[in-house]
Structure formats: structure tokens, C-alpha cells
């Protein structure tokens, strides 16, 4: 296995962090969540579809947790939304958050989660939390409390999955090309990309190719691959910067911008859907101790 190394020598630099930023805005998160869960309507229990608006509403909660009035929660939550990929050289990311944090702390000078981000870990951890919620639900499908737990868990998966598919959440160039000291020029491009789903409504465009969710197994490398696909679009985003500015001022989108928007929308939907499907299927075999299962109603 190749050992992960830092790609850049970091001195006392003003490292960029995407902690102030949303991905896809609240409307974008809701749109992708609705379509992702709808894709699974034949396989998942029906209450998910029936309560889709509420589930989609919950998908913005992880951004609300970055509220400056909740400083400890914000400190813990903010790195979950991005990964500054350029800071890491080739080599495999360790599979757990703890190992990754140890790696960052062992660098000279040492780094922390806020400087690099922990997005792939938040995606996998949220999916595994949903697996656990599904496993409890399978025991008692009609229990409304367990259904509510599943909806909240699924909403968080949807949030982090869609963040990962926003290319500017995978890069040090998250809001304009990073400056020499790696700080951000805060050009506003991040918000312009966030607003694309709401502005261009890609869910209304027909496509010849239908989206088919699949089980992602093993999950960690599949999440890293999806992150790499998203990161590969960073240069394209910057090539379209002029059009993004014009669009914000009321201009028309180019075909390239429409195509990028459609591609990222479909990636967000398919990735979210695949993660939820993975959690559902895996939950069938997850062993839970008796004390972690709901009591079944007495049988006559
Ligand atoms: Zn986010």
C-alpha cells in the first residue's frame, strides 16, 4: 500500500478551509435528496416516499450545524463538508477518521482536520449510521419513531454525498484560485456554483440514460473514487468562471455550463441513492445486540 504523504510543504500559512460554505444551497440539497430517494421507491419501505419533503428538509441540517452561535458543534462539524485534496499526495487515504487525524498530526508542522477537511469520512460514517437505523427498523417496520430515525439518518447521508459531488468542496481552490499562502481570494465562485441546481433546474432535463443505483462495496474506496471524479471537474468549473459571473448577473448559461450542472446533479443523485441502497442492503445482515433492538409488541 502506498503511504499517504503531504503534497505541499506547509509552513505558517493561512490554509484555506471551506468551512464557511454550503454546497448546492438549501434548494439544491433538497432537489437531489428527493430524486435520490425516489429512485429507490420500489425497494425501500413506503414511508420514506410518503415523507419525502420532510426527509429532504432535514438534508440541510449539517449546514445549519455550522452556526457560529454553536461554537463547539461548528468546530466539530465544519471539516466534515470538504477535503482539500491538493494537500495530499498520491497514496491511499487511511480508512478511518482516527487514522487520518493521526496522520495529519504527525506532519511537520502538524495539521488538523479544519485545515484539510474530512469529507470522505463523514460520508462513510453517515452511511453506516443509516445502516444501523435501518437494521433497527427492520425489526419493527411500522414503528414511527424508528422511521423518523431512518429519515434523519438518510438525510445526513444525502447532505454529505451531495457536498462531495460539488467539485469546489474537494479542492484548495474552493472560492477562487488559492493564493500563494493557500488562503482563498473569496471571489464568490463557490456561491455561483452552489446556486446552479436552483437556477438551471437540471431535474427537469430529460436524459437518455437512466440512473441505476448500485451497492457500493467496499464502501470506503468507492467513496474516494467518487471524490476523485468530482475533483477532476475543478478545472472545468474555472474554465466556466466568466459564464458563472454572467449567469449571476442575469445572463444565459452556455451549453458547457448546462452540461456541467447536469453532470454534477446526476452524480449527486446517483451517489446519494447508491449510498442509501448500500445501507439498506447491508442492514439485513447487521448484527445488533438484543439491548439495541426495539421491543416487539406482545403476540396473543
Ligand atoms: Zn455541507
Give the gist of this structure.
With 300 residues, this protein is mainly alpha-helical. The chain has helices spanning 25-38, 47-50, 52-58, 61-64, 71-77, 97-105, 113-116, 119-139, 144-164, 189-194, 196-200, 219-231, 234-239, 241-248, 255-283.
Cα shape: globular
The fraction of residues in strands falls at under 5%
* CATH class value: Mainly Alpha
Structural class from helices and strands? mainly alpha
Structurally, the number of domains stands at 1
Overall pLDDT, averaged? 91
The Cα radius of gyration reads 20 Å
Q: Would you report the number of β strands? A: 0
Distance between the termini: 57 Å
Helical content, roughly? 40-55%
Enumerate how many helices there are, as a single number.
15
Relevant terms:
single chain, about 300 residues, mainly alpha, P1 Nuclease, 15 helices, globular, binds zinc ion
Describe the 3D structure.
With 300 residues, this protein is mostly helical. It has a single domain (25-286), classed as P1 Nuclease (Orthogonal Bundle). 53% of the residues lie in helices and 0% in strands. It contains 15 helices and no strands. Helix 1 packs across helix 3, helix 1 (25-38) crosses helix 9 and helix 9 (144-164) packs antiparallel against helix 15. The protein is globular, with a radius of gyration of 20 Å. The termini are far apart. 39% of the residues are buried. Zinc ion binds at residues 22-23, 62-63, 81, 159, 163.
Amino acid at each position: 500500500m502506498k503511504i499517504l504523504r503531504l503534497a505541499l510543504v506547509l509552513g505558517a500559512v493561512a490554509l484555506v478551509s471551506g468551512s464557511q460554505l454550503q454546497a448546492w444551497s438549501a434548494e439544491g440539497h433538497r432537489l437531489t435528496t428527493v430524486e435520490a430517494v425516489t429512485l429507490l421507491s420500489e425497494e425501500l419501505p413506503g414511508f420514506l416516499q410518503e415523507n419525502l419533503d420532510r426527509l429532504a428538509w432535514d438534508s440541510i441540517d449539517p449546514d445549519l450545524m455550522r452556526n457560529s452561535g454553536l461554537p463547539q458543534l461548528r468546530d466539530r462539524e465544519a471539516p466534515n463538508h470538504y477535503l482539500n485534496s491538493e494537500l495530499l499526495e498520491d497514496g491511499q487515504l487511511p480508512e478511518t477518521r482516527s487514522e487520518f487525524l493521526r496522520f495529519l498530526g504527525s506532519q511537520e508542522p502538524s495539521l488538523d482536520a479544519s485545515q484539510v477537511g474530512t469529507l470522505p469520512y463523514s460520508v462513510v460514517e453517515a452511511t453506516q449510521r443509516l445502516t444501523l437505523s435501518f437494521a433497527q427498523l427492520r425489526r419493527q417496520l411500522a414503528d414511527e419513531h424508528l422511521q423518523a430515525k431512518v429519515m434523519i439518518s438518510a438525510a445526513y447521508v444525502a447532505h454529505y454525498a451531495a457536498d462531495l459531488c460539488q467539485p469546489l468542496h474537494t479542492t484548495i481552490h474552493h472560492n477562487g484560485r488559492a493564493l500563494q499562502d493557500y488562503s482563498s481570494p473569496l471571489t464568490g465562485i463557490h456561491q455561483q456554483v452552489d446556486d446552479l441546481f436552483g437556477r438551471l433546474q437540471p431535474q427537469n432535463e430529460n436524459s437518455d440514460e437512466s440512473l441505476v443505483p448500485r451497492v457500493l462495496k467496499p464502501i470506503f474506496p468507492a467513496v474516494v473514487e467518487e471524490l476523485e471524479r468530482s475533483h477532476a471537474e475543478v478545472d472545468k468549473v474555472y474554465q466556466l468562471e466568466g459564464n458563472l459571473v454572467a449567469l449571476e448577473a442575469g445572463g444565459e448559461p452556455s451549453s458547457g455550463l448546462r452540461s456541467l450542472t447536469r453532470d454534477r446533479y446526476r452524480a449527486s443523485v446517483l451517489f446519494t441513492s447508491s449510498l442509501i441502497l448500500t445501507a439498506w442492503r447491508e442492514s439485513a445482515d447487521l448484527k445488533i445486540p438484543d439491548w439495541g433492538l426495539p421491543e416487539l409488541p406482545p403476540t396473543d
